[in-house]
Structures are given as structure tokens and as C-alpha cells.
Amino acid sequence: MKFLKFNNSLLNRYLKSDIIFLSILALITLSIRVPLADKFLYEWDSASYALALENYSIVHEQPQAPGYILYVALSKLVNFIFHDANATLIYISIVISILTVFFVYFLSKEMFQRKVAISSAILLTFNPLFWFYGELSAIYIFQAFLSVLIAYLSFKAFKDKGYFIYLSALALGISGGFRLDMVMFLFPLWLFCLWYGKISLTKIIKAILTMVMGVLIWLIPTVISTGSLGNYLKLLSTISSAGSTSLLMGASLYSQLINSGLTVVWSLLGLNLFGADLVLIYLFY
Question: How confident is the prediction for the chain on average, in pLDDT?
Fold first, then answer.
């Protein structure tokens, strides 16, 4: 009994320290993003999201395909508070930034240890690329959040089995209502976690059906809004840029090299290779 009491007190201490640490990071995120938030709609896409709050129409590019219907729906709800499209989209980005930091912390703690989790959360909070997109009226911050959320749930499914199998599947399916490419990019990771975690084939099939249900949650109303599935697919075909960036789709070698170079530059910026890594490694290890 004494041993159990000791373990419970230790667990409570860790939970309290986690709450304190994440609360501090949340306050820091708010304090360094709110004063620097963009005062105007950031780009054309931002304007299309703003117009969609008044009249959702993919046909009229309010917003453009694939429609981002769950993002617009969330924005409409938040807009009842701010009554200002730019402020609504920006504060959503800030809150999603905080949630992303939280899940990076929890994922790192699950996979490694608390020191790694602390370092990862701090690095992400001050990462220039993440910081930049976390204070704009743009949807890109959702890519970071959804990637980390699905990775966390998939890892929990791999480790703990149980209901995380279906939670990860549902999150993966629903993510397409925010960013359609999330389903395609993260499906291999999700499937790998289930397969490598030796999940039974029956559960995998049930999980895939759960994912399909998550997809239908946003796909059905999106298709209805365009009139038919044929119309929606036609609108989707107009947004692909593969023809100008991929050799396999007809792009020139020069275009491929430019695109690859940009990918390297943005990746290095995303990795935050500006010295902060070395400082944190020195402090915590």
C-alpha cells in the first residue's frame, strides 16, 4: 500500500509539472504571437476563407477546391465571437499552434523521455517557420497540428492497442476536411503503426471503415455543395500543380530542381538550424 501511495504521489507530481510547463508555454505562445499578429488578410487564400464565412461556395472559389469545409465551419463558429474574419482566422491559428506544441510534447514523451519532450516543445514554440504560420490568417498551421495529432494517436494505437486504433482512424479521416492531402500523406504512417503493432486484420478492417466514415463526414456535405461528385472532381482537377513540379507529370528538369531546392531550404528552416538546438542540448543533456 505504501508503494502504491508513493507511485500515486510521483504520478501526480509529474502530471502537475506537465500542466505547469505546458501552461507556461501556452502563455509564452500567446504573448509572442498576439502582438505580432497580421493586421490584414495574409494572401488570396485568406480572402477566399473570409468570403466563405459569408457564403460558402467552392464553385465561386469561396474557398477554392478542395473546399476545406471543416476549417470553414470551425471559422464560422469562432466568428460569432470576433465578428471579424481576419481576427477569427488568426486566433484559430494561435490556438492550434498551442495545441500542436502540446501534442509534440506528449508524443515526444511517449516515444523518448521527458527531457526530449521539453526540448521538442520549446524548439517548436520558437521555430521561425512554425511561429510565422501561427499568427497568420492561413490554414497551414493545421498541417502541423494534424500531422502531430495523427502521429500521436497512431503511436498510441501501436503501443496500447484498444480504442486508440479507432481514434487514430477517425482523426485521419476527418483531417481531410481541413487539408485533403493529410489523408494521403499520413495513411502510410497510420497503416504502418497498425501493421507493425501486430493489430489483428479484423481490427484493421474495422479501423479502415472508421476512417472512411471520418472521410464521409466532410466529403458528403462538400459534394452536395457543388451539386454532384462529378462537379467536385472536376474542380479538384483544376488545383493540381504536379504538371509544373514533377518530372513524372511532365515538368521540366529545371522546374524539378527549383522545386527540390525550395524543399531543402524550407526543410532546413523548419528544422530550426540556427543554434537553438545546440543550446537546448547543452542545457538538458
Answer: 84
